Amino acid sequence: MSETSRRYYPVSWEQLHRDAKALAWRLAESGPFKGIVAITRGGLVPAHIIARELDIRVIDTICISSYDEETQGDASVLKSVGGDGTGWLIIDDLVDTGKTGRIVREMLPKAHFATVYAKPAGRPVVDTFVTEVSQDTWILFPWDTEPQYAKPIAKARAGETVVP
Ligand SMILES: O=P(O)(O)OC[C@H]1O[C@H](OP(=O)(O)OP(=O)(O)O)[C@H](O)[C@@H]1O
Ligand SMILES: Nc1nc2[nH]cnc2c(=O)[nH]1
Ligand SMILES: [Mg+2]
Hints:
InterPro entries: PRTase-like, PRTase_dom, Xanthine_Guanine_PRibTrfase. Belongs to the purine/pyrimidine phosphoribosyltransferase family. XGPT subfamily. Guanine binds at residues 96, 139. Its cofactor is Mg(2+). One of its GO terms (molecular function) is xanthine phosphoribosyltransferase activity. This protein is an alpha/beta fold. It has a single domain (2-160), classed as Rossmann fold (3-Layer(aba) Sandwich). The protein contains four helices and eight strands. The strands form two sheets. It has a six-stranded mixed beta sheet, sandwiched between helices. A two-stranded parallel sheet has the order 1-8. Strand 3 and strand 4 form a beta hairpin. It is globular. Magnesium ion is lined by residues 39, 42, 92, 100.
């Protein structure tokens, strides 16, 4: 939903670790799980953290791609898994429109689907999540960002001042 994103929600490695652990605490009551299906690529890091916390060693992947930077395109399923998902935990970083989530739910209807972050349109698709952000927010993950110089406020303002 990029073209209408009006604000950014930057997530640091520390915050992502903390939020993924909070998700693991919630999921501890819903298990035990046979294994995790991570939705690549965004689900890989949260899946690792949750697998570590819940002592899960079996991790498979469903590979889906639908966004080019902030622009949504057709979802393309590059790799699937078999079965109906009974006893399995699906992990993704977030649900936005819910399109990716609906695809994985159709593939594995009996699995438990969890994400770290959720936007309102995707929320009904997930069983468990930690933090909700508004639909017009773009979540910036640590793997998509790098620190850079920021101008002091006074200089930034001076640069914008129109001298009569
Ligand atoms: O609810 P939706 O509107 O479908 O959006 C959510 C999906 O979009 C992102 O994946 P993306 O397609 O960008 O691929 P990536 O995980 O490889 O970054 C994100 O990781 C979710 O999987
Ligand atoms: N990084 C990132 N990827 C997305 N894919 C769909 N929505 C988002 C978002 O808010 N942030
Ligand atoms: Mg993804």
